[in-house]
């Protein structure tokens, strides 16, 4: 036991504290400083899913695939008289299919609004494909041999002579082509929107 404190005061025997400065004279009397608890690690941040749009790679790929499939199915079934009444069903089914494929590829649940947006993108791709096809047909019909070949092909599909003549006249007329494009634009942009909304609503029940 020291006779003097570090402050210079003379300590009595067995002093526990300095009577002058109050400093403890035994180590077991020193205050125990407990270490501060370590801060918990930051929680991992979950990135928000990208919005449905043309900057969303998976959405663009799915919409393009569904749009191409819609055109193919519409063209193939258009050759069959029994399936022609279902022409308005395929664009709606395209929107549903796009939502299904996007959810399967990304695991992301879509709201009806996002589903409608995805269906709209799908319809835009389908409309662009239709515009390209109509442009190629209009250019090809500038040749009389192509007109005759299309006439025979349409007749073989069971289309009446009057309908074939009317269709060819439309394809030869700029106003007719513009009207056809407007019809296809409404067909391929409105119906897939409904399909996307329906698909998002149905798949959200899982």
Which key features would you list for this structure?
single chain; 206 residues; mainly alpha; rod-shaped
Brief characterization of the structure:
The protein is mainly α and 206 residues long. The protein has six helices and no strands. It has helices at residues 57-78, 89-106, 112-140, 144-156, 161-172, 174-203.
Which regions have little confidence, pLDDT < 50, spanning 5+ residues?
Answer: none
**Sheet/helix structural class:** mainly alpha
Shape: rod-shaped
The proportion of residues in beta strands is under 5%
H/E series = HHHHHH
Helix content bin: 55-70%
Arithmetic mean of pLDDT: 77
- Gyration radius (Cα, Å) is 39 Å
Number of domains: 1
Task: Explain this structure.
It is a single chain. The mean pLDDT is 77. The protein has one domain. Helix 1 crosses helix 3, helix 2 crosses helix 6 and helix 3 packs antiparallel against helix 6. It is rod-shaped. With 206 residues, the chain is mostly helical. It has six helices and no strands. Helix content is 60%, strand content 0%.
Secondary structure elements and their pairing?
Elements: H1 57-78, H2 89-106, H3 112-140, H4 144-156, H5 161-172, H6 174-203
Helix pairs in contact: 1-2, 1-3, 2-3, 2-6, 3-6, 4-5, 5-6
